[in-house]
Amino acid sequence: MELKTIIFLQIAAFMALGIHLVVAGSEVQRKKESPEDGIYVQYCERNCTVKNGGSTGCSNDCKCVFEGHNSQGICISIYYVGEYQDLDYKDPDFIKATPRSPSN
């Protein structure tokens, strides 16, 4: 008798969990991505140092990125060009963000 009760409660719990997952999953609708949406990251050809919560070595349009508690990092620029209806390809910031050809 106890075994049947435990099995019944387990089945009821799994059914409740399954229904909950189906309902919760239906609330989240993912937006379709287009090829034009994206984040562009460019290396600014500089290294940087992190000290006392600030960084040195990067220009104004670049950010210092580092791993963990390492004080040495690299300067990168990050541009998000998604969601813009009228993107100006002649904008100086956009031109700076275009990938550079590799130097030998």
From TrEMBL:
Residues 1-24 form the signal peptide. Keywords: Signal. It comes from the Eukaryota. This is Putative basic tail protein. It comes from Ixodes ricinus.
